[in-house]
Write a structure and sequence with these properties.
With 175 residues, the chain is of the alpha+beta class. It has a single domain, classed as Peptide deformylase (Peptide Deformylase, Alpha-Beta Complex). It is built from three helices and seven strands, in the order αβββββββαα. The strands form two sheets. The chain has a five-stranded antiparallel sheet. A two-stranded antiparallel ribbon has the order 4-5. Strand 6 and strand 7 form a beta hairpin. It is globular, with a radius of gyration of 16 Å. The N and C termini lie far apart (38 Å). The structure holds nickel (II) ion. The site of nickel (II) ion has 5 residues, from helix 2.
Length: 175
C-alpha cells in the first residue's frame, strides 16, 4: 500500500526565511529523499514547476523541478545545485513564484546556463539548459541564496507587486 506524501506549507513573502541563505545538504543526509518527495507532491498540488527548500521552511540547498507537470511526471531533484556557467546572451520570460501567489513579471536572465548538482542516488549530474528550464533553474537556485524573481525587476515594479501581494493576502486572510 502506498500513501500520498504529506504536503508542506509554502511560505509566502514577506516571510523572513525566504531571504536567508540555505546551507549545503550534507552527503547522505537521510532526510532528503522523503523531503524531496514531499516537496514534489507540494509543487504538483500547488501547482508549480519548481520549489526550493527555503520555500517550505527547510534552509537546505535542495530544489525540485518539473517543467512539464501536465504530461507524464518528469521530476528532477537537485541536491546542492550550482550554476557553473552562464551565457552572455540574455533572455526575458514571464515568471511567477509559489511564494508570491498571483504575481507575475517579465524577468531577464542569462539565456543559457550550465548547472551541476548531486542526484538522490549521490551521482554528480550536469545539464546545459536553455528556454524554460534555464529560467526555472536560475529562479530556484536564487531561492537558495534568499533571492526572489522580484529582485530582478525595477524597484518601481517590485514595490507594486509586493504591495499588490500584501493587499491580496490580507483580503484572503479575511475570507
Ligand atoms: Ni519561486
Amino acid at each position: 500500500m502506498t500513501t500520498a506524501p504529506e504536503l508542506l506549507p509554502i511560505l509566502i513573502v514577506p516571510d523572513a526565511r525566504l531571504r536567508q541563505k540555505a546551507r549545503p545538504v550534507a552527503p547522505n543526509d537521510p532526510r532528503i529523499p522523503a523531503l524531496a518527495e514531499r516537496m514534489l507532491a507540494t509543487m504538483y498540488k500547488a501547482p508549480g514547476i519548481g520549489l526550493a527548500g527555503p520555500q517550505v521552511g527547510e534552509l537546505l540547498r535542495l530544489v525540485v523541478i518539473d517543467i512539464h507537470p501536465d504530461d507524464k511526471p518528469d521530476p528532477i531533484v537537485l541536491v546542492n545545485p550550482e550554476i557553473v556557467a552562464a551565457s552572455a546572451e540574455a533572455a526575458t520570460r514571464e515568471e511567477g513564484c509559489l511564494s508570491l501567489p498571483g504575481q507575475y513579471a517579465e524577468v531577464t536572465r542569462p539565456a543559457r546556463v550550465k548547472v551541476r548538482w548531486t542526484d538522490l542516488a549521490g551521482a554528480r549530474r550536469e545539464v546545459e539548459a536553455d528556454g524554460l528550464l534555464s529560467a526555472c533553474l536560475q529562479h530556484e537556485i536564487d531561492h537558495l541564496d534568499g533571492r526572489l524573481f522580484v529582485d530582478h525587476v525595477s524597484a518601481l515594479k517590485r514595490n507594486m507587486l509586493l504591495r499588490k501581494l500584501a493587499k491580496e493576502q490580507k483580503a484572503k486572510a479575511r475570507e
